[in-house]
Please model this.
Amino acid sequence: MLESIIAGDGARLIWSQSDGVGFLEVANEDVYDEAYFERYRALSQTPMAAALNDFRARLTMKHAALGVDHILDVGIGDGAFLRRLEQLQAPPSIRVSGCDVNPAGIAYLIERGQLWSLEDGADLVTFWDSLEHIRDPRAALEGARVCAIVSIPIFGSVEHVLASRHYRPDEHYWYFTRQGFLDFADRQGFYCVDVLATETALGRDGIETFVLKRRV
Model:
């Protein structure tokens, strides 16, 4: 059964408790600008961000070791995760690229020779706090030829969504329960090999990390 909820900000959230999925049409994507990039640059200097990017990079390299030649990060923030990946590879053995919709992020990737198209895909694609920002996440996951790693807020109910700091009608299209996201990934041709709450343990609120492998 679908519920249509008008939130206090006037945004309309479509929620299916049986499917564990909610959708909200983001009205304006102009938030992705130089100021957005600089905010992530400032955040990347904090101890929590350093711990998060170290966890993310080590998890990615663990799964990349199983025959991956190319890693693509979708929604790079300020590039801190990509930089940590490079630090863990000395000398570099796996190609590392990124893609973004923010002009500042695109300029950063061009300058470093790391810009890549999600449509062209990669062996392993990472979505750190980014899949929920994409209107068509099914198309986005198609770019992952072997593996996708997704870090995303997880909710228990529509009430949880509306009370959460992760309810962002100016950025987030999608809201999932844990089973809702697992079922969504399954429909896209992936099976889940791990679910981690490490980011929550590091101080974030309700973030889970899913390691998805493509069925062959």
Remarks:
- The helical segments are 34-43, 47-64, 80-88, 103-111, 137-142, 158-163, 178-187, 198-201.
